[in-house]
UniProtKB/TrEMBL annotation:
One of its GO terms (cellular component) is cytoplasm. PROSITE patterns: NTF2_DOMAIN. This is NTF2-related export protein. Keywords: Cytoplasm, Nucleus, Protein transport, Transport. Residues 22-143 form the NTF2 domain. The keyword ATP-binding does not apply. The keyword Nucleus applies. It is found in: Cytoplasm; Nucleus. One of its GO terms (biological process) is mRNA transport.
């Protein structure tokens, strides 16, 4: 006799699928804008994000985000993989997403610039804007030199 799956297991599968779909869209848009339209990046963050950039904590919220991205050298990002997991629902039918990305970054405009590994761990919080989207509330970025 076949066992039926519990409702909570099905709901968990749906949350995983929705998290993956939202994360895939986020990764595509965020890393494209990180390379080509940095002035748009402030819109990806909550008003008071917690950011760790290569071991340095930034505590200035949106102002630090803008300064970090506008003063950073030109870079080309190649995301090799990402993983997205739903975090506990918040009681309003929404859940945050834990996103981990890994890949390579090349700083500067030179074609022969060396590629460096990078890893980011990001917490995406649901935003109630229309259309709904997710915003970065925490971000930890590490470069492998």
């Amino acid at each position: 006799m076949a066992q039926s799956r519990s409702t909570s297991a099905i709901e968990g599968d749906i949350l995983i699928q929705l998290s993956y779909s939202a994360a895939k869209t986020f990764v595509t848009n965020y890393y494209t804008d990180l390379q080509t339209a940095r002035t748009k990046l402030k819109a990806y963050y909550t008003p008071t994000p917690t950011i760790s950039w290569n071991g340095n904590n930034l505590s200035g919220g949106a102002a630090d985000v803008e300064k970090l991205h506008t003063e950073m050298a030109a870079a080309t990002y190649e995301v090799q993989c990402f993983d997205a997991q739903p975090l506990m629902p918040n009681g309003r039918g929404q859940c945050s997403i834990l996103l981990v990305t890994n890949g390579y970054v090349k700083f500067g405009d030179e074609k022969d610039a060396p590629s460096r590994g990078f890893s980011e761990t990001i917490t995406l919080e649901p935003d109630t804007s229309n259309p709904p989207k997710f915003l970065i509330s925490t971000q930890s970025t590490r470069f492998v030199f």
